[in-house]
Write a structure and sequence with these properties.
By secondary structure, this protein is mainly α. It has one domain. It is 80% helix and 0% strand. The longest helix is centred in the first third of the chain and has 26 residues. The chain starts with a helix and ends in a 6-residue tail after the last helix. It is found in: Cell membrane. Keywords: Cell membrane, Membrane, Transmembrane, Transmembrane helix, Transport. It is a multi-pass membrane protein. Pfam families: TauE.
Length: 250
């Protein structure tokens, strides 16, 4: 076991991953999303895609302790359940694609997904039609597929919620519950598919403490009156992560 811990401590870029997950925790605490969008592009420079997904999904489970109790009281649990169930069905497809594509292709997919998500929310794109339950199932399914392939479980759902002009508090609560559910689904899927090794689990354990601490800090900073400030801050950090994680800079 000590050998696994030593191997995790010697992982190239570990200090950058610690700093990145700490920044992501603050953003996650006050917005309810953003961790994977910040962490995955940076971690992809140092770890294989499957390990990045395992680390971010496992680490995300720890934040559940801090965020879910408060979100549970506010969220539309029926809607989140529909999104999560459809994601559960499609995560295996994403994990299968993960095993078929090379690491560089997946990193470019991550860059495109995060960039398009950021562009949509920054420009204030809005959905003006009506989206029934079939549409919600489709969104959850798309989130599951992309999450299984890249670890980015949130972008599709985030765009859906922000595009519907809901309050920051409602978006935050629903997103927290959905991301908590998909973290568990993806981690379970990786175990079942045999793509889990001990070293990335040890890395997730090392990252969990700074992530939990900064998530609590971000949660304590949350104030619905400062919605604009939160969004601008989150977008800036996400943009920085996308630029720094571009495969062009390897």
């Amino acid at each position: 076991m000590l050998d696994v811990l030593y191997a995790a401590l010697e992982t190239p870029g570990l200090i950058w991953m610690v700093l990145t997950i700490a920044a992501a925790g603050i953003v996650r605490g006050f917005t309810g999303f953003g961790t994977a969008m910040i962490f995955v592009p940076v971690a992809g420079m140092f770890l294989p895609p499957a390990e990045v997904i395992l680390v971010i999904a496992t680490t995300g489970i720890f934040s559940t302790i801090a965020l879910v109790p408060g979100a549970w009281k506010i969220a539309d649990r029926g809607e989140v359940a529909a999104l999560s169930l459809s994601a559960m069905v499609t995560v295996p497809l994403g994990l299968w694609l993960l095993s078929q594509l090379d690491a560089m292709t997946i990193r470019w997919i991550v860059t495109v997904v995060v960039s398009l998500t950021l562009l949509a929310v920054v420009t204030g794109w809005r959905w003006h039609g009506r989206l029934g339950w079939p549409g919600r199932f489709a969104i959850g399914g798309a989130g599951g597929t992309i999450g299984g392939l890249t670890g980015l479980t949130g972008p599709v759902v985030i765009i859906f919620y922000l595009a519907n002009a809901r309050s920051a508090q409602a978006v935050r609560a629903n997103t927290i519950l959905f991301l908590a559910a998909t973290d568990i689904i993806i981690t379970t899927g990786l175990f079942v598919s045999g793509q889990v090794t001990l070293v990335p689990l040890a890395i997730a354990l090392l990252l969990s403490l700074p992530y939990l601490v900064t998530t609590l800090i971000g949660q304590s900073l949350f104030d619905p009156k400062l919605e604009r400030f939160y969004r601008v801050s989150a977008y800036s950090v996400i943009a920085l992560a996308v630029v720094s994680g571009l495969p062009l800079f390897d």
